[in-house]
Amino acid sequence: MRTRIATTLRSIIGRADADLIRALRAQVAVAASGAELACALLDGTVGMEAARARMEAIEHDGDDRRAALLAVLGATLSPPVDREDLNRVSRSIDDVLDTLRDFVRETDLYQVGDLSRYRDLAALVLAGIRTLDEAVAALAPGAELRTATLAARKAAGAVVRAYQYALAALLTGGTPEHDAAEAMKARELYRRLGDVGLRLGDAADGLADGAMKRGR
After folding, report:
1. Which residues of 17-37 are buried (b: 16+ CB within 10 A; e: fewer)?
2. What CATH code is carried by the domain that includes residue 196?
3. DSSP strand E in the chain: where?
4. Model-level pTM?
5. Most exposed: 13, 41, 64, 196, by fewest CB within 10 Å?
6. What is the pLDDT of residues 184-211, one digit of tens each?
7. How far is CA 75 from CA 9, 17, 28, 92, 146, in A?
8. What is the number of domains present in the chain?
9. Which of 75, 90, 106, 128 is nearest to 191 (CA)?
């Protein structure tokens, strides 16, 4: 009888964990959509007006996905890592999408002509989000969570370092500018993408902290 009850409980907890991981990955997927849109804007595949409209829709979807994640988390008996850490991860992912929204909006607001300079950094952002998704997937039992979170941290760090190099080139004259106003625009847009890297790092740290607390 006890064995049957224990088996049933494990089954229930396993399904709940799967639902939670699925919900968190869905939120990450929306953030990836935001990064893909930013990349499409930068390479000219999508125009500014369409990009802003699509980003607004993506942001609303992200809000819905976060709400759904919190609902699943609240109903989960024993999540794979602490609730506080999972909420931190979800909040950081939400911040990633908000910052990408600001990046797209400000490219329009500042009337930036040449967007190509931001392509490489935006590509690193997208790669970082995809690596974070792999770390979230590693919340599943038996997966190498520590290895996956380390990779996510490294990917986030790559974004921050690339931002620092780009900013250094801008401020030391390595990147020619027509006037101070153009340099200020570039600095602000670089900073937005650098901030995405910081938020990705926060999300990876949340997963790593949760893994450590559970001895994974």
Report:
1. bebbbebbbbbbbbbbbbbbb
2. 1.20.58.220
3. none
4. 0.89
5. 64
6. 899 999 999 999 999 999 999 999 998 7
7. 15, 11, 20, 21, 26
8. 1
9. 106
